[in-house]
Amino acid sequence: MNDMEPQKKSFNIKILVEITIVFLTILSIKHLADYFDVIGAGSIAIWCGIIVSTIFMKQKKINWKELGPKIPKGTKNWMINILITLGTVILVFSIMGLIVKPILESFGLTNPAGVADRFAFFMGKPLVFIGYLITVVWFGAALGEELLFRGYLLNRLVDCTGNNTLGIIIALIIHAVIFGMLHIYQGLAGVIATGCIALIFGSVYFIIKRKLFPIIIAHGIINSLSLIGLYFNNGVIS
Fold first, then answer.
1. The model scores a pTM over 0.90
2. Which candidate, 140, 238, 157, 146, places its Cα nearest to that of 197?
3. Distance between CA atoms of 235 and 228, rounded to whole angstroms?
4. Is residue 223 a part of any domain in this protein?
């Protein structure tokens, strides 16, 4: 037997334990925040997960900059990142609207009727709505989720599955399942839809050589447009 095999197995187990601790932290904080009806409970839980994952990363001398959240420098890089961002937004809306949504509806899968109720608190309150967009949608979801899921989780899973085509595909699927399951409040349709979005974001992340900045912006734009549509549609999901 290769002497490296036991070491690799031990390494993989440590990573899986680390990931488990991070997401148990997220689930625990989310449950506690939901119990007290805290607005932005998911975002609070995500950032608690980021804190825990940062502690693990420091032990291995890994910093967040290595995972891709660098602001572009120079006009050329900015233009490239803007094009990637716009392309990602168009890709997500196209795939979700033309492929995923019709397939889900053909199986009778739609979001539960009460999903939009969680946003009722800012309906008709523009300042509250803008505050929610900035703090929860952009800081919590766009920045927080991309750091945690694409930056941290995907890279740690690839450490387990292997930094090759097959390993990356397996890591993408696993991370998409986890991302989707954390949106279970949206019902099965929401789990599948958000899982598909995670696959798209994750795939783009690897295609553009693990750069997070354009994906963070694309995530924020997509979520913002969706919520703006909800806001001006009086809380009705179309």
1. yes
2. 146
3. 10
4. yes
